[in-house]
């Protein structure tokens, strides 16, 4: 009797245990099946080793896609860290991804602190933009700015954009030191009211030293007393000098030029000086590349004239962007100012497409004027509008030592082949052949055989960075 009771008791408790075991087994099988299906559907790139992912992240970060919209969720580090948990763990432990701090988007102090922590000890790129978020008030900015200034020993790049109190922001940097700072960019393109602000007299910024500072890019002019030490600067770019903005006095601009003994690349869009004295002279002892941009349009017809008073004994490349006949007419005046470029060997002329132009570009007479002023050109690059240059090379013996002619872009490049053929034949007949011709962006229908017997062709790409021209 007792045995029967014991058997019933065991059976009563064993059946549920079997059910639980069976349920657990089915659950585990279902989990393994789902995991297998998920692994089959997830791209293999999501399961790459950390070392490989870090290499991919570095390439994506250093060469971002220019077609991504300018929204916070499309930043490289944010996008990469939201793909999967594996990618997020990898991204959070990769300091390079967090070394670029956007003040104006990540305006919260907590976000800035997180970037500073995740970036480890890597050099920082600081980008300040007041238009990006209206929520970034001046008190919030000052709190973040002071926090970032405590990390100035790590600054590598600084950009200040659309700051209505630009001079006040720069004043914080008077006695600062930035041992790793290499580049400064000041962009107030969207804030024209800055031209109405009278800067308070200040001392120069970064007086503590910035020994690695090599490049400055300015939208508009900054008073001379706001500039940092410039003895080691090699690249200076005035992105845009609006005609309605106050210009520098000649003495102030000459003082700036004299403080640039190591400058090798200079780019100027617009005119930095309002009036030049008769004996004006601007000496650039180390300048190699000079690019000048004319601002032609309905509201502005202003081109740099300072180059007429420039002396650059080492200048090798002159780049004229959006220049017209009227912009170089002073070179025809034998009694007027003339640039002194004894080593000039490369000339670049670049025009906008016809659909974007407000007036015609260079004529053949303009190229002849340039050939008279600079007779030793060995490399001529013509971008977008080739006919005037081809005409000048065909009908004159100017630039007899030209070794290379480069033609880039233009909608009618395939139709210019007959003019190219005529120019080459004419130069050969006069004993002035051009040893090398470069044609970039050649259309598929370009009849190569027309010029194959006259010149060695080489396909080239348009230089992306003006500082890379022939240097």
TrEMBL record:
Superkingdom, natural source: Eukaryota
What is the name of this protein?
Answer: F-box domain-containing protein
**What organism is this sequence from?**
Lyophyllum shimeji
